[in-house]
Amino acid sequence: MIKQPISGHDTVVLLVDSFYDKARKDELIGPIFNEVIGDQWDQHLPTMYRFWEDILFNTQAYEGNPMFVHRQLNERIPLKPEHFERWKTLFVETVRELFEGDKAELAEQRAVSIATVMQLKLAGYGK
Ligand code: HEM
Ligand code: HEM
Q1: Domains plus CATH for the chain?
Q2: Which of 10, 12, 28, 51 is the most buried (most CB within 10 A)?
Q3: What residues does ligand 2 touch, defined as CB less than 6 Å away?
Q4: pTM of the complete model beyond 0.90
């Protein structure tokens, strides 16, 4: 498979679709997504396109508060360290399978940083 740069909207869609394909099928974190998102993937995926396009290309299209959303989620289904580990592994795997270049590296770094900070905040650090 030839790797490509993450170059804009279409490649962000490919990244996000590929990641959630993996995440939904994963035996550890898949059930969380499937329970919470259910049949609402048509709404969730466009939110995630906007989120990642914003992070990588500063489009300012994402409106939302992911920290708040995951605090609520964590009340309902406790998010454990192993969930975050799996999330990060699948995300990095997806990026490396499909992409190369600066934006690919940036995507990995931001994903890992955000996941780490999210996990620490949910655990009660820096509340
Ligand atoms: C759960 C919510 C979020 C957390 C915990 C979080 C955490 C972080 C952390 C730890 C960094 C530093 C990463 C690094 O230097 O590699 C960072 C950087 C950044 N984040 Fe977030 N973030 C969140 C949401 C967002 C959102 C919603 C956006 C924009 C739509 C965003 C845009 C950025 C940008 C552009 C940077 C790079 C800033 C710079 O290097 O000048 N983040 N974030
Ligand atoms: C243990 C790891 C994680 C799990 C199980 C998880 C699960 C979920 C679920 C189930 C939702 C939908 C919530 C709802 O609609 O009520 C969601 C939303 C979202 N997640 Fe995560 N997540 C994880 C980590 C992350 C990380 C590390 C990021 C960012 C790098 C992230 C970014 C987002 C964003 C942007 C949304 C949409 C929030 C909005 O509605 O605006 N998630 N996540």
Answers
A1: 9-122 (1.10.490.10)
A2: 12
A3: 29, 32-33, 36-37, 47, 51, 64, 66, 69-70, 73, 79, 83-84, 87, 111, 114-115, 118
A4: yes
Q: What secondary structure does DSSP assign to the chain, as a single string?
A: ---B---SHHHHHHHHHHHHHHHHH-TTTHHHHHHHHTT-HHHHHHHHHHHHHHHHH--------HHHHHHHHHHHSPPPHHHHHHHHHHHHHHHHHHB-SHHHHHHHHHHHHHHHHHHHHHTTTT-
- Give the distance (Å) from ligand 2 centre to CA of residue 21: 14
- CB of 62 closer than 6 A to ligand 1? yes
